[in-house]
Write a structure and sequence with these properties.
This protein has 395 residues and is mainly α. It folds into two domains: 93 residues, no CATH class; 292 residues, no CATH class. It contains 18 helices and no strands. α11 runs parallel beside α16 and α14 packs antiparallel against α15. The radius of gyration is 23 Å and the shape is globular. Bound molecules: iron/sulfur cluster (2 copies).
Length: 395
């Protein structure tokens, strides 16, 4: 076998937290101790040697890289301190940039050097929208008590479509649209790469309904239940933070969909449906419970990360901390804006609300390039794992 190492790839892995990969001497303790490794396709020992050899193509086409849940059990037990959990995390970080589209944006989101631009883009876009809306003012306490943030972008005479909703849709829909389109391009490229690498037949394909029913849906159920996460031993604690965080995202997604339906569809027919939700509205309750779950989940992940950095000497990476900071910003500014509304503080409230919009836009726009991308790529890997064992792949 003629091995042609990609030195640039090895350097990227080292920079992203995989600087210990050369210490591995292939004892296989990690594959034995990994609770998620399967007999037919054990990991992460093989990924360690491929990383040492710089076999980028093999690693990017390897679903096992994405099936790892970064529990760190292997890192705890590695006799050489090679930290395979961190190496796999670094490979995933590289994959999100590799599969990301458009490439310049994916590259920008891959390191701390891009941070000023990553924050600057949404700040400028939202500030320009605020200027274009003509609403550039801080409301009086009375206006703030009556409307909250419903007139952040001002208001106009059309009862059937609030100006604020128009501007928020104008900012967030293209941001989410770009994030989802990029995610679609990334996962189709990844699926093709994995299928070619494993020689999976593409001649006989399931219908979309069959695919969802047999591969995607069971994968989603497993992910939401955290079935594999719960198999981790030494670092089982991560489930306590990860699961509430995931449920919080699902809750906030439901509330956002309802808000869009209420204001943008039903509100066009019955203008009285426009406006903020009441405190006891079930969707408002779901939003608040989700916000608390989000803050709880991120606090647990934050403390676990700090503990891992201290006890396992895990390297602090931009890739890990950017997502933690981003989610914290969404939760703190969201809850802060609401508390400031109750407290009747319009100036501070408007500033915090502005930052809340910035953090949400960042979450949507950079979804396929940050660590949050594991949501889509891991789901794809789960589905591929089931697919390659199915009759479709073998026909
Ligand atoms: S990473 Fe550690 S445990 Fe795994 S094969 Fe290498 S030396 Fe052994
Ligand atoms: S970090 Fe956990 S899931 Fe990933 S390879 Fe190591 S033991 Fe397995």
């Amino acid at each position: 076998m003629n091995v042609q190492p990609d030195l640039e790839f090895i350097r990227s892995l080292k920079e992203a937290g995989g600087d210990t990969l050369k210490k591995c001497y292939q004892c296989a303790t990690c594959s034995v101790t990994c609770p998620l490794s399967k007999d037919g396709s054990p990991f992460p020992r093989k990924e360690m040697i491929w990383s040492q050899w710089g076999l980028k193509e093999k690693l990017l086409a390897d679903p096992d890289v994405f099936l790892c849940h970064q529990c760190g059990d292997c890192t705890t037990n590695c006799p050489r301190g090679a930290k395979p959990g961190d190496v796999l995390g670094a490979i995933r970080a590289y994959a999100y940039t590799f599969y990301g589209w458009p490439a310049p944006l994916a590259k920008l989101a891959s390191s701390a050097k891009g941070l000023p631009m990553l924050i600057g883009i949404p700040v400028v876009v939202i500030f320009i929208m605020w200027m274009i809306s003509g609403a550039m003012h801080i409301p009086t306490s009375e206006q703030f008590a009556d409307h909250g943030y419903q007139q952040f972008f001002g208001h106009w005479g059309f009862k059937w479509y609030a100006k604020n909703i128009f501007f928020i849709v104008l900012i967030m829909v293209p941001s989410l649209g770009l994030g989802l389109f990029s995610a679609y391009k990334g996962i189709t490229k990844m699926w093709k790469t994995m299928a070619e690498n494993e020689g999976v037949s593409t001649e006989y394909r399931p219908s979309a309904v069959q695919f969802v029913k047999e591969f995607l849906w069971p994968s989603l159920i497993e992910i939401v239940n955290h079935d594999r996460f719960k198999e981790c031993t030494d670092n089982r604690d991560r489930v306590r933070g990860h699961q509430p965080l995931m449920l919080a995202f699902i809750g906030l997604f439901i509330v956002t969909c309802w808000s869009l339906l209420k204001n943008d569809v039903i509100g066009l027919i019955w203008p009285s449906w426009h406006g903020p939700m009441l405190l006891m509205d079930p969707f408002k309750i779901l939003a608040n419970v989700s916000a608390v779950a989000l803050l709880f989940g991120i606090a647990v992940l934050w403390s676990n990360r700090k503990k891992a950095e201290k006890e396992q000497d895990t390297k602090a990476t931009f890739y890990d901390w950017f997502l933690i900071w981003e989610i914290t910003a969404v939760g703190v500014t969201g809850l802060g804006a609401e508390l400031l509304r109750w407290a009747g503080a319009p100036t501070l409230g408007y500033i915090v609300y502005f930052l809340h919009l910035v953090s949400i836009m960042m979450l949507f726009l950079y979804l396929p390039y940050t660590k949050l991308a594991h949501l889509i790529y891991r789901t794809t890997a789960y589905s591929f794992e089931k697919y390659r064992e199915s009759a479709f792949a073998k026909k």
